[in-house]
Amino acid sequence: MGLTPAVAERTREDYPVLRSISTRWEDEDVYGHVNNVVYYSFFDTAVNGFLIDATGTDIRRLDAYGIVAETGCRFLRELRFPGDVQAGLRLERLGSSSVVYEIGLFQGTDPAPAAVGRFVHVYVTGAERRVTPVPDVIRSALGRLQP
């Protein structure tokens, strides 16, 4: 599994949902670009923000919640501060207890992504963290991410 070479050829139009995220002063590093670890924060913010908005539910209060089991990123060009980033979301795979998202990060008017990420949620219950099916409210919302 992982990011295929074709993901670098995606454009904004390949992502059914776009979410805007503002860069912050602290996001840039000494090299004058958004540091690589911030991209992963953008992935988390985009996915969970989408789930909250799309379900109309505080997802932290569901009986099951998604924990990040895997994440990856292909860096294609720099992101910079100041400037908003658009995170494009699409569904790569929906399993019985897991969701694999593909996330494209865009800045400015460039139709090509600056980075493409893979973000995997596995749904678990409570403190014991037993794997459980994706909640119906989440499953329904994910239909909007079908490419």
Topology, pairings included?
Blueprint: E1 17-22, H1 36-55, E2 64-75, E3 84-94, E4 98-107, E5 115-125, E6 130-131, H2 136-142
Antiparallel strand pairs: 1-3, 2-5, 3-4, 4-5, 5-6
Report on the architecture of this protein.
This protein is of the alpha+beta class. Helices cover 18% and strands 35% of the residues. The chain has one domain: Thiol Ester Dehydrase, Chain A. Strands 1, 2, 3, 4, 5 and 6 form a six-stranded antiparallel β-sheet that branches. The longest helix is centred in the first third of the chain and has 20 residues, at 36-55.
Which terms summarize this structure?
147 residues; alpha+beta
Task: Report the β-strand fraction as a percent range.
Answer: 35-45%
Can you tell me the number of structural domains? 1
Secondary-structure-derived class: alpha+beta
Low-pLDDT residue spans: none
Secondary structure tally, helices: 2
- CATH architecture label: Roll
Distance between the termini: 19 Å
Helix content: 10-25%
Fourth-tier CATH superfamily name: Hotdog Thioesterase
The average pLDDT value, as a whole number, equals 94
Please state the CA-atom Rg, rounded to the nearest Å.
15 Å
Number of strands: 6
Shape: globular
CATH topology: Thiol Ester Dehydrase, Chain A
H/E topology pattern: EHEEEEEH
**CATH structural class:** Alpha Beta
Largest sheet: 6 strands, antiparallel
